[in-house]
């Protein structure tokens, strides 16, 4: 045990799985931290430092820098996975998925189904996502609903260092293509993480707080903000449950419905755009299957339907924060029905 | 006069707790509080519990009102008999030194790794003084956190260590170390390093069985033995629990399994469930737990009852059992040898040290104080 950052937890997961399984390979842009030359190799360990030390430990045959062509290296990962490797590829920003979506959406996601269940495609596609880093519209999106929409993909969004490690190990051991999304504002967050290799199964939500008055469901970086809101509300005597589904595909519908039925008030916090996002998806699930238990409308706390703004003041206003989440819970508590 | 004044400080429940929030004072300033009365509710992000008064007195001063948080070890209230003057309390407050205040202060619980042969075991220590130390041994599937309400409280005049058994907590995963002899040998190896000059043993459940066996070994120099719902006394272990616990790989089945451990099912929090599932998902742990069940807790492994010759034990023995224990029947108290003190705790299941922490702490403290050291 010991406190580790989100970044260090991911790095430890990669190290432990590469040590345990020679089929695990890592490639992407700058994952060895440089140009492929000998001078500055592994200076950073990738743009965000997550792959630090892998090159020295496992060599160039298993840790490769690729050219800046997502279409080529994501396609290569899908092919390598089909033929027996367990590639972990890194797209520096998930926003770049556009240039290689066919490889993910039409190839990797469909192999098992279209080959009659006779193939496996155990690839992990890691990518950073999320707003807050002043990186403007093309480097700040939360595109997980896009992947969640596509059958055949598993979609993982860790919210804390321990889950980051356990979910990444699970992703590497999983036989299906996994989209593993890391919020870039969480890399320096620290928390208790076991030193030993361990897994967190997909499709199991984490319950961060138990409260009888309302349920907040949140993803990624929004989980911490939901907890902050829960603390604020607790001081006012409003006790809320906070649930982090951890994966959007598969989704732990059982836990979501259990808490929806227990509390009768559901607030979903989603950093993705409001249309066709996880908040809308969960709202539809609860409305269809737990309608009778609801004491108030299901409320969504999301950004507006706009690109992520570059201006710091606008970017801060764009993202849901604890105050907005708490205000939405109070609104749910105050709901009296038709007057 | 100040020896009659009792400082009430924010408790520390486990390694990760740094502060707690007062959710309610159950007595007002000036009220008389009896020993054992529940008088203040404290919660952290992870756990909520009621604190019971150690000694009787009047609640003279509330320093941290309900709704506010305070660091562990900081003063939250003062109790004193009625005859103590307000001025004397003011003087006491001025001189009070907050333990653990400031970021550089020594934490009240420290953690270290102790090597025993190829194994590394985790030991958590509450420093308390130079007296003969206490070593606490948790039960199957638990870890040092099983003593979170007891360890720091009992560290008065002596250090209190808690050991993570092999394949538990932050100790090494070792499926080969699973029968009673191997588990006992591993703990003995730790004792030879942290308590070479004698030890007070406290064991819960499987840890009770281990403590009992350790106490029969001359080299351990056991000064006293406290067994909380020990395995091996009386009937066997509830095999339904062992099956449910080892098979549970999701939240709901794990909740059902953990609820068998306690008298009050609401005592099982989502945090406990998550923590237990996380432990079971460490590589190698499921195999190690299965091995321990087969070799140390199954009906065949436990059918001998108490393998040790209780008559050989010379050190004072205290046996504590929850009256609603569904894992090991409280009838086990009847197996306690003559001369042992036996305490049956009402409204507690298999974890009386958590469900009735104050009364269990008081009993263990009295037991320890009664032993000439």
Overview of the structural elements:
The complex is a heterodimer of chains A (339) and B (373). Chain A has 339 residues and is of the alpha/beta class. Chain A has two domains: 190 residues, Thiamin diphosphate (ThDP)-binding fold, Pyr/PP domains (Rossmann fold, 3-Layer(aba) Sandwich), CATH 3.40.50.970; 129 residues, Rossmann fold, CATH 3.40.50.920. Helix content of chain A is 35%, strand content 18%. In chain A, the strands form three sheets. In chain A, strands 3-2-4-5-7-6-12 form a seven-stranded mixed sheet, sandwiched between helices. Chain A has a five-stranded mixed sheet with strand order 9-11-10-13-14, sandwiched between helices. In chain A, strand 13, helix 10 and strand 14 form a beta-alpha-beta unit. In chain A, helix 3 runs parallel beside helix 4, helix 8 crosses helix 12 and helix 9 packs across helix 10. The longest helix of chain A has 15 residues. Chain A is globular and about 65 Å long. The mean pLDDT of chain A is 94. Chain B is an alpha/beta fold and 373 residues long. Chain B folds into two domains: 94 residues, RNA polymerase II/Efflux pump adaptor protein, barrel-sandwich hybrid domain (OB fold (Dihydrolipoamide Acetyltransferase, E2P)), CATH 2.40.50; 261 residues, 3-Layer(aba) Sandwich (Rossmann fold). Chain B is built from eleven helices and 15 strands. Chain B starts with 5 loop residues before the first strand and ends with a helix. In chain B, 46% of the residues are buried. Chains A and B meet through strand 9 and helix 8 of A and helix 7 of B.
CATH superfamily of the largest domain in chain A: Thiamin diphosphate (ThDP)-binding fold, Pyr/PP domains
Helix content of chain A: 25-40%
* Oligomer description: heterodimer
Please give the domain count of chain A: 2
- Sheet of most strands of chain A: 7 strands, mixed
Summarize this structure as a short list of keywords or feature phrases.
heterodimer; A: 339 residues; alpha/beta; Rossmann fold; 2 domains; seven-stranded mixed β-sheet; five-stranded mixed β-sheet; 12 helices; globular; B: 373 residues; OB fold (Dihydrolipoamide Acetyltransferase, E2P); six-stranded mixed β-sheet; four-stranded antiparallel β-sheet
């Amino acid at each position: 045990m010991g406190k580790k950052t989100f970044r260090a937890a991911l790095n430890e997961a990669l190290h432990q799985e590469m040590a345990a399984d020679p089929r695990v390979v890592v490639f992407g842009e700058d994952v060895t931290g440089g140009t492929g030359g000998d001078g500055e190799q592994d200076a950073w360990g990738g743009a965000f430092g997550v792959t630090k030390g892998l090159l020295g430990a496992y060599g160039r045959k298993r840790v490769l820098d690729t050219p800046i062509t997502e279409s080529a290296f994501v396609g290569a990962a899908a092919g390598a996975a089909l033929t027996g490797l367990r590639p972990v590829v890194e797209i520096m920003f998930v926003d770049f998925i556009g240039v290689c979506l066919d490889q993910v959406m039409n190839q990797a996601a469909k192999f098992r189904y279209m080959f009659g269940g006779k193939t496996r495609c155990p690839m992990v596609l890691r990518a950073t996502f999320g707003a807050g880093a002043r990186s403007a519209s093309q480097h700040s999106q939360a595109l997980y609903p896009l992947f969640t929409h596509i059958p055949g993909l598993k979609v993982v969004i860790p919210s804390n260092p321990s889950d980051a490690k356990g979910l990444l190990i699970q992703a590497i051991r999983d036989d299906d293509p996994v989209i593993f999304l890391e919020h870039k504002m969480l890399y320096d967050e620290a928390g208790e993480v076991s030193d030993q290799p361990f897994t967190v199964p997909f499709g199991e939500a984490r319950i961060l707080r138990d409260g009888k008055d309302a349920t907040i469901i949140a993803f990624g970086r929004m989980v911490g903000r939901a907890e902050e809101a829960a603390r604020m509300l607790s001081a006012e005597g409003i006790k809320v449950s906070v649930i982090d589904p951890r994966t959007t595909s598969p989704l732990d519908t059982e836990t979501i419905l259990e808490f929806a039925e227990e509390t009768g008030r559901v607030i979903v916090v989603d950093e993705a755009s409001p249309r066709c996002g996880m908040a809308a998806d969960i709202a539809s699930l609860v409305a269809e299957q737990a309608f009778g238990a609801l004491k108030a409308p299901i409320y969504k706390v999301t950004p507006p339907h706009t690109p992520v703004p570059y201006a710091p003041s606008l970017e801060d206003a764009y993202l849901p924060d604890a105050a907005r989440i708490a205000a939405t819970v109070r609104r749910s508590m105050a709901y009296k029905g038709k007057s | 006069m100040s020896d009659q004044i009792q400082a009430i400080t924010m408790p520390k429940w486990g390694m990760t707790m740094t502060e707690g929030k007062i959710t309610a004072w159950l007595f007002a300033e000036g009220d008389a509080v009896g020993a054992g009365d529940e008088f203040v509710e404290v919660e952290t992000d992870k756990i909520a519990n009621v604190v019971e008064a150690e000694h009787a007195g009047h609640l003279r001063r509330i320093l941290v009102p309900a709704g506010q948080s305070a660091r562990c070890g900081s003063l939250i209230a003062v109790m004193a008999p009625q005859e103590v003057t307000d001025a004397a309390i003011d003087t006491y407050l001025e001189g009070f030194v907050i333990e653990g205040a400031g970021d550089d202060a020594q934490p009240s619980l420290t953690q270290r790794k102790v090597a025993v042969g190829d194994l590394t075991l985790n030991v958590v220590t509450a420093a308390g003084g130079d007296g003969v130390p206490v070593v606490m041994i948790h039960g199957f599937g638990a870890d040092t956190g099983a003593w979170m309400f007891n360890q720091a409280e009992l560290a008065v005049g002596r250090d209190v260590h808690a050991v993570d058994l092999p394949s538990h907590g932050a100790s090494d995963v070792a499926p080969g170390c699973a029968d009673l002899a191997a588990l006992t040998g591993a703990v003995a190896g730790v004792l030879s390093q942290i308590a070479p000059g004698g030890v007070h043993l406290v064991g819960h459940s499987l840890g009770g069985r281990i403590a009992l066996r350790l106490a029969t070994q001359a080299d351990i120099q056991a000064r006293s033995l406290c067994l909380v719902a020990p395995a091996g006394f009386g009937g066997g272990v509830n095999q339904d629990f062992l099956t449910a616990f080892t098979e549970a790989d999701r939240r709901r089945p794990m909740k059902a399994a953990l609820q068998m451990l306690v008298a009050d099912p609401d005592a099982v929090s989502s945090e406990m469930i998550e923590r237990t599932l996380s432990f079971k998902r460490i590589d190698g742990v499921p195999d190690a737990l299965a091995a321990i069940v087969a070799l140390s807790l199954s009906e065949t492994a436990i059918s001998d009852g108490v393998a040790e010759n209780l008559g050989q034990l010379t050190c004072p023995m205290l046996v504590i059992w929850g009256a609603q224990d569904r894992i090991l029947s409280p009838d086990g108290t009847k197996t306690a040898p003559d001369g042992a003190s036996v305490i049956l705790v009402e409204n507690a299941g298999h974890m009386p040290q958590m469900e009735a922490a104050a009364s269990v702490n008081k009993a263990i403290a009295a037991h320890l104080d009664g032993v000439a050291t």
